[in-house]
Specification:
The protein is mainly β. Helix content is 7%, strand content 47%. It has a 6-stranded mixed beta sheet with strand order 3-2-1-9-8-10. The protein has a 4-stranded antiparallel beta sheet with strand order 4-5-6-7, with no helix packed on it. A hairpin with a 2-residue loop joins β8 (121-131) and β9.
């Protein structure tokens, strides 16, 4: 089985908050095709893909991919999203944290979503991060599926489950 976790991160600065930059940013996809999918393996493993969009006009993301083994009942984390793998299902938990979701502060009460094998889930959250009077803004979309077969287009249709924590960013 594969646990496929795709994380799409869009980052921008204060100068790119409105106008044309905001319009371009709104067109950044929350899911991408899975590139160069690995061959099936006998042991359960995680296929982690991360795409970062950090520069206007947000055309080409910086992509990284890795494959590594995971034991049943093991947890995987991507930002504020924790994924607990069971034999044929996942428990997806979103836990707000200032270091992964930024400001403004929100409830730290966990949001939990069970997901059966073969079903897709998407968790979307955003935040504001600052240091030395320099604000950075970030939107993160984490797409998840536990599956026998890796299909390039698995995340391109509407997900079976969606969880959001979208804050108004000033």
């Amino acid at each position: 089985m594969f646990l496929i976790v795709q994380t799409i991160v869009t980052e921008w600065g204060k100068a790119a908050r409105g106008g044309k930059a905001a319009s371009m940013r709104s067109r950044v996809p929350e899911a991408l095709p899975i590139p160069d999918a690995p061959e099936p393996v006998k042991a359960m493993c995680v296929y982690q893909q991360t795409a970062k969009y950090t520069h206007i006009p947000y055309n080409e993301p910086h992509l990284t991919s890795e494959v590594y083994p995971i034991r049943p009942a093991q947890r995987h984390q991507s930002g504020c999203v924790q994924i607990h793998v069971k034999a044929d299902e996942l428990t997806v938990t979103y836990v707000y944290g200032i270091y992964c979701a930024g400001a403004p502060q929100r409830s730290a009460f966990p949001k939990i979503m069970p997901v059966r094998a073969g079903k897709t889930a998407r968790v979307v959250y955003n935040g504001r991060f600052g240091f030395a009077n320099q604000w950075r803004y970030r939107k993160t979309a984490v797409n998840i599926i536990l599956t026998e077969k890796v299909e390039r287009s698995v995340f391109l249709s509407e997900p079976d489950h969606i969880m959001q924590d979208i804050a108004h960013l000033r």
